[in-house]
Amino acid sequence: MTSAPTPDRLRHIRHLLWVTAATLAVVFGGAFLWRALSPPDLPAARVTGEAAIRNAYTLTDHTCRAVTPDAYSGRWQLVFFGYTYCPDICPTTLAYMASVMDMLGPDADKVAPIFVTVDPARDTAEVMAVYVAAFHPRLIGLTGTEAQTAEAAANFRVWYERAEDAAAPDGYFMAHSGYIYLMRPDGRFEDVFREGDQPPQALAEEISMRIEKDDRSE
Fold first, then answer.
1. What is the mean pLDDT of the chain?
2. Strands 76-82 and 59-61
C-alpha cells in the first residue's frame, strides 16, 4: 500500500495550491478554477429544507475516540467529506477551510471544522491524525467502518463512488462531491458552500455574522 502523505509534503502541497489558486483566480476567475478542479458531472447539492440534510453519524475521530454530532454540540460545524489520497479538491478545500478558521479570529472558538473520509479502508484514525494536523490544529478528522461512512454520507446527502484506476495509488480513487456544510450549534443544517464560490474572508465574515445573530437571539 502506498504510504500516506507526510506532514511536510502536505504543507508544501498547501502552499503550492494556494499560490497556484491565486494566480489562476486573477487570470480566469474563481468560477473557472472550481470547474477545473471538480470531477465532471457531479450531482448537484440537494438543499430542500432541514429534513434533507441530517447531522447524524457514529464515527471515530483522529484521536481514536468514538463520536457522534453531540461531541460538537454548542459549536457551529463546518463539515466536508473527502479522502486523504485526493489529488486536488480535498487539499484545496481543506486549505481553504483552514484559512477561514484563521480569519474567524475569536469566533474560531465557536466553530468545529470537520473532515469526514469517504475512504475508510485507507484513512484510519492514525492516517487522519497526520493529515489533518498538516492543515490546521483545530481540524477534526473522522473515519469509521464502510457502513458507518455510508450512513454519514447518506444523512448529509453526499455522493461518493470508488473508481478503479491503475494509475492511482492502490489502483483506485474516490470520486465525490465537494460541498462544505455549515451546521448550527444545535446540529441543524444552516447552509452549504463550495471553496470556489467565495474567498475565505467572505465565508469567515458570513459565519461571524450568523454567529453574532444567533448570540443576539439567545
1. 84
2. unpaired
